[in-house]
């Protein structure tokens, strides 16, 4: 039987030397791009970190002992070979950011719904054919990436999350393009709207507004071209641009 890659052995000394102080003063353990094939148990002695980066390795499994990292606010596991997540992931109550992009996930544990403080969740580039309606319990969620999966629908409980502002569902096999566009553009927000009467505008402003209105009318009268799906840079596949600096992928 062929053996898989042995991978790099991470010692406690290596792990300690990989701790950095993040921009907000927290402790960040960065073990990304180190050829790790199994979860390094030695880091269970460093559970006081606020951020853990195990991205761009060859991990196939995250153990239940991840629950020992109770201070974690930021967990990056993108670009590994994970096929499932442990139920213990739901115990990380302080988690703000969770990146699971570019793995081999086919299902999600129902315990994800327990992450009440989660704001950003990236599930893009996996093998998911459905999203559990229970994710509707993530009331603080503002951004979710679901692109490049096998989804045919998005649960209403997810689309109607009260604080959701960005949702990337590109390149999923939705029944038709109309449904895809509806799902991709289901989150619409008007940040500021000012209404004034024409008499309150100066001549210059009135002329500018009329010009913009004329341009809009011309566009509306032209045969529409295929709509371009919205692009959300924070929810794109992390390794698509080969960014070496992980700080560029952090959501600030």
From TrEMBL:
Q: Which GO terms describe its cellular component?
A: cytoplasm
Tell whether Ribosomal protein is among the UniProt keywords: no
Q: Specify the Disease resistance R13L4/SHOC-2-like LRR domain's residue ranges.
A: 66-184
| InterPro entries on file | Leu-rich_rpt (IPR001611), Leu-rich_rpt_typical-subtyp (IPR003591), LRR_dom_sf (IPR032675), LRR_domain-containing (IPR050216), LRR_R13L4/SHOC2-like (IPR055414)
Q: Name one Pfam family in it.
A: LRR_14
Protein keywords? Leucine-rich repeat, Repeat
Which superkingdom is the protein from?
Eukaryota
Q: Does the UniProt entry include the keyword Repeat?
A: yes
Region (Disordered) residue spans: 224-252
Name of this chain's protein: Leucine-rich repeat-containing protein 18
Recorded source organism is Cuculus canorus (Common cuckoo)
């Amino acid at each position: 039987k062929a053996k898989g890659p042995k991978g790099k052995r991470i010692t406690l000394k290596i792990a300690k030397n990989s701790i950095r102080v993040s921009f907000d003063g927290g402790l960040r353990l960065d073990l990304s791009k180190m050829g790790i094939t199994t979860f390094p148990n030695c880091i269970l002695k460093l559970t006081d970190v606020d951020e853990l980066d195990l991205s761009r390795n060859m991990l196939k499994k995250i153990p239940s002992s991840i629950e020992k990292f109770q201070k974690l606010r930021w967990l990056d596991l993108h670009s590994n070979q994970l096929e499932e997540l442990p139920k213990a992931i739901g115990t990380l109550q302080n988690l703000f950011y969770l990146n699971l992009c570019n793995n081999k996930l086919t299902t999600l544990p129902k315990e994800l719904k327990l992450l009440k403080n989660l704001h950003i969740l990236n599930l893009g580039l996996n093998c998911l054919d459905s999203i559990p309606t229970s994710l509707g319990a993530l009331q603080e969620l503002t951004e979710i990436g679901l692109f490049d999966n096998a989804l045919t629908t998005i649960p209403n409980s997810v689309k109607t999350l009260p604080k959701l502002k960005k949702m990337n569902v590109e390149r999923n096999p939705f029944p038709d393009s109309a449904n895809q566009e509806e799902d991709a553009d289901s989150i619409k927000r008007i940040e500021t709207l000012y209404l004034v009467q024409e008499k309150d505008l100066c001549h210059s402003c009135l002329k500018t507004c009329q010009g913009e209105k004329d341009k809009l009318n011309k566009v509306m009268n032209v045969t529409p071209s295929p709509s371009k799906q919205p692009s959300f840079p924070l929810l794109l596949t992390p390794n698509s641009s080969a960014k070496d600096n992980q700080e560029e992928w952090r959501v600030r």
